[in-house]
Amino acid sequence: AGSQLRQIYDKIDNLLSGKPVQSAGRTVSVTHHPEGLQFVYYKLAEKFVNQGEEEVSSHHDSAFPIAVVASGIWEMHPQVGDLFLAHLHRKCPYSVPFYPEMKEGMPLEEYQRMLGYQVKDSKVEEQDHFLKRMSGMIRLYAAIIQIQWPYGNKQGTHPHGLHNGWRWLAQMLNLDPLADVTATVLFDFLEVCGNALMNKYQDQFWKLMLFIREDYIPRIEAITSSTQMGSLMRFKQFLEECLQKKEVPLPKGTLKPSFWKS
């Protein structure tokens, strides 16, 4: 509910502002330790990214409630935003976007970790699980860049607004695609952020969508094996429907004005 989100936001904002906050039955404050505030900035930013990786990946609708709190905290406490991007880029290099290359002499495990895979006891996670986590983080990022906390004291410009999404999309399409990964993250990003980008960039947006269909999809197809077609087919279907209707639907989980009365 909207009222619950306000309580969560206020509690985090109070903590970062140096006010005492109740947590797990005791009072905590960042003023209790000289490095307390820096530590909380770091851990909070990490927690937001973890929410994308764990919560949003399983429940796509949760992207916007988490994003609106993250965006509001970012606006009031910019250090959290910088650290959020740092954690996000480390865990999901496709949010940069960047495809790490394997350097000569680099151990395979180290390279797999650079690509965002979890590696435990020399075992790399399954592809489906990996893609699900990357999807969650991309979806959270796509939600954050388009949404602002509605109760900010200084309702100015977004701390990391929609133009970053346009830049991400352009940079993504300048990279050679990766099988499985590229189709997955493009679909996730456009399903969450496509409507907002369409409304802002209009004709330019539709030129980009046509470019993806005519030029970029064939390049993805050329490197995709028969066992990796799922994510590509889903992306192609989404793209065709959008171009046919000349409309990108509002993403599921969008917070409507009535939400804040709940």
UniProtKB/TrEMBL annotation:
Localization annotation: Cytoplasm; Nucleus, Nuclear pore complex
GO molecular function per UniProt: inositol hexakisphosphate binding; phospholipid binding; translation initiation factor binding
UniProt keyword terms in alphabetical order: Coiled coil, Cytoplasm, mRNA transport, Nuclear pore complex, Nucleus, Protein transport, Translocation, Transport
GO biological process: poly(A)+ mRNA export from nucleus; protein transport
Highest rank taxon of the organism: Eukaryota
Pfam families to which the protein is assigned, alphabetical: GLE1 (PF07817)
CC per GO annotation: cytoplasm; nuclear pore cytoplasmic filaments
Role according to the record: Required for the export of mRNAs containing poly(A) tails from the nucleus into the cytoplasm. May be involved in the terminal step of the mRNA transport through the nuclear pore complex (NPC).
PANTHER family tied to this protein: GLE-1-RELATED, MRNA EXPORT FACTOR GLE1
Family: Belongs to the GLE1 family.
Protein's name according to its UniProt entry: mRNA export factor GLE1
Gene name per UniProt: Gle1
